[in-house]
Amino acid sequence: MAAMVSRGVVLRAFGEPLVVETAEVPAPQPGALIARVEMAGVCGTDVHLHHGNLPIPTPVILGHEAVGRVVRLGDGVTSDFTGVPLHEGDAIAWASSIPCGRCHWCVVEGERTLCETRRVYGINQRFDEWPHLSGGWADAVYLQPGTAVFKLPVGTPPERAIALGCAGPTAVHGVLDVIGVRAGETVVVQGSGPVGIAAAMYAHLSGAAKVIVVGGPASRLALARELGVGDVHVDLFAVADPAARIALVLGETPGGRGADVVLECAGVPAAVAEGFEMARRNGRYLVLGQYTDRGATPINPHVITRKQLTVAGSWAFAEAHYLRYIQSLPRLADRFDLTRLITPYPLEDANRALADVAAGAVMKAVLVPAGAA
Ligand SMILES: [Zn+2]
Ligand SMILES: [Zn+2]
């Protein structure tokens, strides 16, 4: 790296504008590496973090989704997570969290997403503590020992790898591993933000016979339709009555029996009760979208019993999900024009990017430290 200093977009106080500050780029310790950030995603979770909806330390450089290039490798770092040799200049992506690997959840349960002491870039790594550069909204990021780093597959440019952001590996975990989608199934996706889009894409790749996307606003549904994401699109705002939406969805399922799988990707508590009604008897329901606590919602547990519904949850993703996300990127990109999801912003426009994400004005805002085209 030519410069010894990196800018970073710092959250100092909840609800206050983010500020661009600088920090010296440290030399990597053994097992660590320095990456230059090429693109960093702005996620709905960042909006919630900015509002103070999650208990995180401040100050913090935001950004838990990023791709970049290796600038310096610490001693002992010779290959990526899969064993592919790693060199300076290589295009890489990295999993956003480092589980401890020793606790009950990591070892006994084997559920690394549930680790209570996992370190997460851009979320719980303080800016005022060494190594300072622990968030993706920066020129450079310090990737600590234990980070799962992946060399991007040949032919996968950074804009493809960042297009789904954390929603890509989150969908791999929830849709493929937790609830599963089998060939020929009818799948309802509630929500048409990045999580819903990613979930629908993986449902298609799994061989779903029909994917029904219930979401909005219309601009997001139009983009989904153009990309071939979803076979049927139901606009929440055009069909404002939940009972009408349920009837519409049931009419799209075999025999009107309901969907085999319903994926909650909306992050709206009320979506859950509505989604139960869209599932068939003996169907499967996954709550994937409630990443922040937006409050309680009335549900009728009788519906779960009577229908013999399987209701599951899925939290974030671990290294194995990120690995399979990276490995499936070329197939995803063959089928869907991922880069159409992106709207680029220069790093110094992080506040504008965050506001646009909060307003649902863009599908995926991406910060480009070198300057957006
Ligand atoms: Zn995220
Ligand atoms: Zn742990």
Automatic annotation (TrEMBL):
SMART domains xref list: PKS_ER
Pfam families per the UniProt record, alphabetical: ADH_N, ADH_zinc_N
Superkingdom per UniProt: Bacteria
Cofactor: Zn(2+)
Span of domain Enoyl reductase (ER): 15-367
UniProtKB keywords: Metal-binding, Oxidoreductase, Zinc
Record has Nucleotide-binding as a keyword: no
GO molecular function: oxidoreductase activity, acting on the CH-OH group of donors, NAD or NADP as acceptor; zinc ion binding
Entry annotated with the keyword Metal-binding: yes
Record family assignment: Belongs to the zinc-containing alcohol dehydrogenase family.
Protein name: Threonine dehydrogenase and related Zn-dependent dehydrogenases
UniProt organism field: uncultured Thermomicrobiales bacterium
